[in-house]
Amino acid sequence: MKILDFPIVRITAWLIIGILSANYLNIHYFPATICLSTALLFFIFTYFKTLKKNKNQQWFGITLYLLFFSIGLNLIAFHNPSLKKNHFSQNQLNYGTTHHFSVVISEKLKSTEKYNRYITDLQKIDNQIHNGKILLNIRKDSNKTNLTIGSKLQIKDQLAENFKPNNPDQFDYGNYLKNKGIYGQIHTESSQIKISSITVKNLRYYAAFFRDRIIKKLSNSGFKKEELAMITALILGQQQDINQDILRDYQYAGAVHILSVSGLHVGFILLFITFILKPLPNTNKANLIRITLTLVSLWLFAIVAGLSPSVIRSATMFSFMAIGKSIDRQSNTLHTTIASLFLILLIEPLFLFDIGFQLSYLAVLFILWLQPVLQNIWTPKNIVLKYFWDIITVSFAAQIGTLPLSIYYFHQFPGLFFITNLILIPLLGFVIMPLGTLLIICTSFNWVPSYLAKLVEITIKIMNQFINWIASLEGFIWKEIPLNNSILLLSYIVILAWFIWFQKPNFRKLAFALGSILLLQTAYTFTQWKEENKTGFIVFNAKGKSIIAERKGKKIKLMCNDAILRDSFEQKILQTYATANFCTLTIPKPIPNCLYFNNQKILFVDQSGTYKISEKADVIILSNSPKINLERLFTLYKPKIVIADGSNYKTHIDVWKVICAKNKIPFHSTYEKGFYKL
Q1: Fewest beta carbons within 10 Å, which of 13, 107, 151, 515?
Q2: In the chain, what is the straight-line distance between the N-terminal and C-terminal CA atoms, in Å?
């Protein structure tokens, strides 16, 4: 049966189109409600018309799709926390000034170099009831504060709006937070926080309490730090403590997906529960007990694992499959997957914008569709060969399905992913997951078998060493691969066209497949031509550094007075800009005192305060807090704009801003407004 023959597929597709339209076109609640009311009236009319005459089936289908499109529009508005009563974002006075915030910690995030980070639920601002999620950043210091899920805090500090990207083509972290329902951040010190004696105890609190108890007991038993972080990620779904170098190794080896609890992990839990409950007789009462225990186990695991989008997807899908099996129905896995997607988006439509959620569903859908096609290429008779051939076909199907989107987001491709999966999947499925799960169960009953803990620890160490070896083969890791929206879309059209032809070859399908490649080549050539004809002059925002880039076509001439270290923040923002624009970077050179771009004269003034040029300057760039008389500079050169980059002190920037306002000259601080582009 073709995929579009499932009604749930067509309905889900229109629901997704509605969600995307509401998000990207910024459709507000009122027009979305009008659209839904109109669609519902048309649907009811055509429904009864169809019942009466048993005709107009086509119009009934159209109104049904329009109805779910309208539901998608309304879901975004309905789930927009900023529209809810008492949400802190409705009053701009809550931002930028010092208040007393009462919050409860709901989730612990991975720490940065300077901050410990938490997602908190707001309760009050200055004793007035407010709600909403706030990202809390607490500066790391010697006063280590023991904060757990459910801790109630009183914070005296300022709330800031989500930051916009400070450099071109940089990851929009503010929009990422917005898609998670977070509309503000607090950066504070531990001295500004008072911990209440009251702890809010809910499902998240008990799940965190269980995880912390397990981690503490394993740590006390002598479990090494790196291996403990891995078992915590694999079984308990918490990646916060994984070393950054190990995480990068897994990315380069194409195995980062195993660190996020998903189908592999939830599927193992289902198999484990099914095995335990196998002795139950095949009666109605026993089946009810079986399905109840199975669903409870799946969702308890999902709660303990942190209810991430990928684990919710997996738990929902396997719940559908378990229910179908319990009522003796042969469930279609593809149908079940789409049904789980439909249900999740009805409840949490913002999950659609989560990168992990997108990659997770794409991987599953392509495995279900492409893996049988790839499997038919060769049918080994040996059971061991068949097992490894299945791993290879599953790996290639998932990789093909997620490849364009992965490159679009991460701009890299791990060439040895299939070798990684050949070793990792059997190791996980037959050793680490069973032994790790058994270890967690034993530990939850206050018993940590030393031999079992040691075996799990050694196995994880071997796995990490293997991943490190794969990641060290840098010749097989393709990095900085550029990809834009049009090429992304056409890449998926090419993949779909060729596999449709491969399944059932005919001339029309072959013509479409060849045409899709021609379209992709045309789009790529046009993109290259367009980028070749672009120019630009950018003053980047980098703390403590002056970085200027002059772009001519596909080459970016870098200028910087300090060294740019490998894998530093500065190197990453420059490479991100170059990759997004299909460009290459040159070796950085010192910034001259005078520059020219598009018939504009640019004066660069650093800490030396030197600015001896004969002609007037259109643009003045201030760097490293020069001690100069700015008004005298204006008299000499009469600039059209003054730019202060990220190397200047904030006190100097505040003074310059006032002087520029007095002289009616535009002032741009990259510290406050981000990069500047001529």
Answers
A1: 515
A2: 56
pLDDT for 3 equals 59
Using DSSP's 3-state secondary structure scheme, residue 437 falls into: helix
Question: Which of 595, 466, 580, 551 has its CA nearest to residue 168?
Answer: 580
- Rounded alpha-carbon distances, angstroms, from residue 241 to 59, 238, 244, 447: 55, 8, 9, 23
| Percent of the chain's residues with pLDDT above 70 | 95
Count Cβ atoms within 10 A of the Cβ of residue 630 and give its class: 0-12 exposed, 13-18 middle, 19 or more buried: buried
Q: Which residues of 566-575 are buried (b: 16+ CB within 10 A; e: fewer)?
A: eeeebeebbb
DSSP per residue, 46-72: HHHHHHHHS--HHHHHHHHHHHHHHHH
Residue 288: what residue type?
Answer: L
Cα–Cα distances in angstroms (integers) from residue 591 to residues 264, 546, 547, 588, in the given order: 53, 9, 8, 9
Residues in the chain: 678
List of residues 6+ apart from 47 with CB closer than 8 A: 60, 63
pLDDT bin (cut points 50, 70, 90) of residue 445 is confident
Q: How many CA atoms lie within 13 A of 238 on its CB side?
A: 23
- 211 three-state secondary structure: helix
Query: Does residue 1 have a pLDDT over 50?
Result: no
Radius of gyration of the chain (CA): 29
Nearest CA to 146 out of 120, 110, 106, 116 is that of 116
Average pLDDT (592-603) is: 88
Strand-pairing partners, residue 604, are 621
Residue 499: both structure tokens together: 């596999």
* The two structure tokens encoding residue 621: 């760039």
Residue 598 region by backbone torsions, left for phi larger than 0, else alpha for psi between -120 and 50, else beta: left
Task: Please choose, from the candidates 365, 390, 334, 369, the residue with its C-alpha nearest in 3D space to the C-alpha of residue 503.
Answer: 369
H helix intervals, 5-56 = 7-24, 29-53
Dump pLDDT digits (tens) for 64-82: 889 999 999 888 877 777 6
Dihedral (CA of 48, 53, 59, 60) sign: positive
Summarize the chain as % helix, strand, coil (round to 5). Answer: 55, 15, 25
How far is the C-alpha of 624 from the C-alpha of 542, rounded, in Å?
12
Q: Are 538 and 547 in contact (CB under 8 A)?
A: no
What are the structure tokens assigned to 385, written together? 């060969």
Query: Which two structure tokens, joined as six digits, stand for 14?
Result: 């229109």
Say how many CA atoms lie within 13 Å of 329 toward its Cβ: 11
